[in-house]
Amino acid sequence: MNRLQIYRELRRHGKLGEKRHPMLEQSMAAKVMMYIGAGIMAIYLVFLGSLFGKLAAEEEVPALILGLMVLLLMPIDFLMRFIAQQTPMMFIKPYLLLNMPRKTVVESYLLNLVSSGYNFLWLTLLVPYAYICLVSGISFWALLAVVLCGLLLVMINSQWYLLVRTLIARSLLWWLLPIGVYAAIWVPMLLLFDNPFDVADLFITSFDTAPMLWLLVLIALVVLLAMLLINRQLQLCFVKQELSREEKKASAIKHVWRLTFLERFGQAGEYLKLEIKSIMRNKAIRSRVLMSLGLIVMLTVIISYTNVYDGVWMLNFWCYYCFAIYGMTTLVKVMGPEGNYIDLLMTQHENILLLLRAKYYFHVVILLFPLLIMLPAVIAGKFTIMMLLAYLLLTSGLSFFILFQLAVYNKQTLPLNEKITGKNNMESGFQLLIELVGMFLPMLLVGLLLGLTDEDTAYTVMAIIGLLFTLTHPLWLRNIYNRMMRRKYVNLEGFHASR
What we know:
single chain; mainly alpha; 76% helix; globular
């Protein structure tokens, strides 16, 4: 088989794998919601494309959209891909047994990523823009170059995201790479120009003819090929490391934290030890924890020392999410890491109940970190102590009550260390619904209370609601445990199949 035939065969295997996945029927609702989200995004892009097209037609500058994409839309797209795009979740191990180059498997993934439907969704921005400019009399060949260049920018952004996401999975210090790149773009503009968009004007006036635009297409194509080559080598390197289980030999015996102070809590204390040591020892879990805490720090700094979020609604919105973001990151996959050894947890009566209690206590204690981190915002006058207390209790009560319901339905094992060769975790529509309710229902309640009463009364009511759910946690955790036991064989089968 030549390479083209291998690519086609691997693509066919991927489609068959999706059809044969045991979660396919349950994930149909999630897919429908994803398509609805894509439709909403397409409507917004058509609106933006029409708006920018009118501006470009009036000024007769076909490259306007390209300047705006580089400065604004591509950084936004980069952040959106953390939701929509994953690192290579291909089943690479089976292909290692075949007479097939590992390089070809990785190349197939990269080509599928470049040709993904999400990338071509951006045509809903570029095509209306080009049509309006074409009607106004701008050259067809210039607009064709603009559309091609814009599409290549989106593809480059997909490879840039993959590069950053892969490196971040190895070390969170790699966050400095995108921060440095975007700072290198924006900081000089803010310092050297009164209006940052003067740089965009300089860019679009430099490429206002068809020959210059086609030169830009050629440059973008070269950059895309370079990014593909870099990603291919990077993925091959990391895949090899994960499959070979290469471990660094310690030069000296490492200190083992025994956490003896937790022994006074009995078996629940042992599960608290397990929760803490899982974060300390397992790379995949540790990365999620550090990323969420880093995001809390970043948001708090922005709120405390800038006036970006000075509105009442925005301050309440981000105050809640600073408390809730850690739970949203970890509890949406609750019991997923335990799926690696779920059989052992089933050997004793009410083991799972004690584990759930330990998880709840751990997540409640973690809420003290955002509380301390947000004290500078209190000193700056952005938050009040009552406001922080209300959102802390609302998170520990109502938010955690909703997110812990996922323990009943989650049955996909999460890898503890593997990032590249792990299996994809598909969710049912009901799981996605619970996640959305956990993310947005508390804020809907906050908006209702703030609309009907003054802030102090709203925070008092929120604190009471959160306190009631917090104090009754033994009741609803036992209810979750009982429902889990009624589904234990279904869940066990799912955990075994997804290891």
